[in-house]
């Protein structure tokens, strides 16, 4: 008898988790501890995995190559993020998810917007202490340190000095990836125990109330993915069907866990073994994308802004719509890569458009479900940018991609 693939096991666990939540409701709350343990097992290695991946990728590059590739990556990241924000605004204006929502009790919320100034945000990109940054899982600071460390390794290598540290980092990365692959064997159990308590606690009431918003978010996310995957397939001269097939596993893990950090090890593995992207490109682009390229969050923010404007019957002119797109794009830089980060980003953007942050509690009840779409877009867009850069740099193995 043929063994069920990991992808199918996770799909089955998702369906069973949803069913268990609806049937047993609050009685499945005890499963949450197992789901949380699974998330922690994955997350405990994310910081060192990102550090190692970026250091190895940058350390293996020439300084000139890093500048050229970095500019390409940044432009593709910004282009995809702006496109996602625009699609969110357009779908919000067409489908009007905020019209007719009636929800009591949204006045109270504990979600607070960021009080940091622009100066604090910019200075916060550089860590005072890398150990402290690692302990706090501050991904931007970790990546900034890793970029400089990798650059120093690259220069030492070019000067003909001892390059054994780079070999050690590469070996260390392989050990971390093997450890995570062992943990991922528990993914079906973990996914089941994550989803069942969420469904059981939320129930159907808030889902029915905000179903229009979720449907709008889902449709706009699907449209963005279709458009972006077509652009990627045409640019890289690959089969669209094969591209979707090769990205299916990482997409499913992203959708069910709602965490880019948890999906990262699977993403890096599939980039190499299914998409044919070189390690040099994937280990540079994918970790950078986690903090600099959040298409799902951008779409979610712009759609939420339009939804709340409709909820309060506020008319937005073309200038405000453009501002909504820009704010949704900029708010994605250095965003939180674990579940729940979307609400914090939304609380930061709302005051800038004179919308009350208290109403964010309206979406708090369905944050897990909207997080599914956000994470799916984030992970898939990062992967496609890596594919595009690999094709540009002649580091895309078409034999592996088509196998």
Helix content: over 70%
Using only C-alpha atoms, the radius of gyration works out to 21 Å
Structural class: mainly alpha
Oligomer: single chain
Biggest pleated sheet: none
What gross morphology would you assign?
A: globular
Low-confidence stretches: 104-114
Stated plainly, the CATH topology is called Proton glutamate symport protein
Q: What does the average pLDDT come to? A: 82
Total of helices: 21
**Number of E strands:** 0
SSE pattern, N- to C-terminal:
HHHHHHHHHHHHHHHHHHHHH
The CATH superfamily name is Sodium:dicarboxylate symporter
Amino- and carboxy-terminal Cα gap: 24 Å
CATH class: Mainly Alpha
Percent strand equals: under 5%
What CATH architecture do you see?
Orthogonal Bundle
**Domain module count:** 1
Describe the structure.
This protein is mainly alpha-helical. It has a single domain, classed as Sodium:dicarboxylate symporter (Proton glutamate symport protein, Orthogonal Bundle). It is 73% helix and 0% strand. The protein contains 21 helices and no strands. Helix 14 (260-273) runs antiparallel to helix 15 (279-292). The chain starts with 5 loop residues before the first helix and ends with a helix.
In short:
It is found in: Cell membrane. The chain has one domain (6-402): Proton glutamate symport protein (Orthogonal Bundle), CATH 1.10.3860. It has 21 helices and no strands.
Mind sketching the topology for me?
Layout: H1 6-24, H2 32-43, H3 46-59, H4 63-95, H5 118-123, H6 130-135, H7 139-158, H8 164-183, H9 187-202, H10 205-209, H11 211-236, H12 240-246, H13 248-257, H14 260-273, H15 279-292, H16 295-311, H17 318-330, H18 341-349, H19 361-364, H20 367-392, H21 398-402
Helix pairs in contact: 1-9, 1-13, 2-9, 3-7, 3-8, 3-15, 4-11, 4-16, 4-17, 4-20, 11-16, 11-20, 13-14, 13-20, 14-15, 14-20, 15-20, 16-17, 16-18, 16-20
């Amino acid at each position: 008898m043929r063994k069920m693939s990991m992808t199918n096991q996770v799909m089955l666990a998702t369906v069973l988790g949803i069913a268990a939540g609806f049937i047993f409701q609050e009685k499945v709350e005890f499963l949450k501890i197992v789901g949380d343990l699974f998330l922690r097992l994955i997350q405990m290695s994310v910081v060192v995995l990102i550090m190692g991946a970026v250091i190895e990728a940058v350390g293996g590059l020439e300084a000139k190559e890093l500048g050229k590739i970095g500019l390409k990556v940044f432009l593709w990241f910004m282009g995809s993020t702006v496109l996602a924000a625009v699609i969110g605004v357009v779908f919000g204006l067409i489908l009007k998810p905020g019209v007719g929502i009636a929800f009591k009790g949204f006045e109270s919320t504990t979600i607070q917007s960021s009080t940091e100034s622009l100066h604090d945000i910019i200075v916060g990109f550089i860590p005072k202490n890398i150990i402290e940054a690692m302990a706090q899982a501050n991904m931007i600071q970790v990546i900034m340190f890793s970029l400089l460390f990798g650059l120093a390794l690259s220069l030492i290598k070019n000067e003909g000095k001892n390059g054994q540290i780079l070999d050690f980092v590469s070996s260390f990365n392989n050990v971390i990836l093997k450890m995570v692959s062992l943990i991922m064997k528990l993914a079906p159990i973990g996914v089941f125990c994550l989803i069942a308590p969420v469904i059981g606690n939320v129930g159907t009431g808030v889902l029915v109330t905000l179903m229009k918003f979720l449907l709008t978010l889902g449709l706009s996310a699907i449209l963005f993915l279709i458009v972006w995957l077509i652009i990627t397939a045409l640019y890289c001269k690959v089969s669209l069907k094969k591209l979707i097939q090769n990205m299916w596993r990482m997409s499913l893990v992203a959708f069910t866990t709602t965490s880019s950090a948890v999906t990262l090890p699977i993403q890096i593995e599939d980039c190499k073994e299914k998409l044919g992207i070189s390690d040099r490109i994937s280990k540079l682009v994918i970790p950078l994308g986690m903090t600099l390229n959040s298409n799902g969050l951008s779409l979610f923010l712009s759609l939420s802004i339009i939804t709340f404007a409709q909820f309060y019957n506020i008319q937005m002119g073309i200038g405000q719509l453009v501002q909504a797109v820009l704010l949704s794009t900029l708010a994605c830089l250095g965003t939180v890569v674990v579940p729940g980060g979307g609400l914090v980003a939304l609380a930061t953007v709302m005051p800038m458009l004179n919308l009350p942050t208290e109403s964010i509690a309206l979406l708090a009840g369905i944050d897990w479900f909207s997080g599914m779409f956000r994470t799916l877009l984030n992970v898939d867009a990062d992967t496609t940018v890596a594919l595009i850069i690999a094709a540009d740099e002649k580091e895309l193995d078409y034999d592996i991609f088509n196998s």
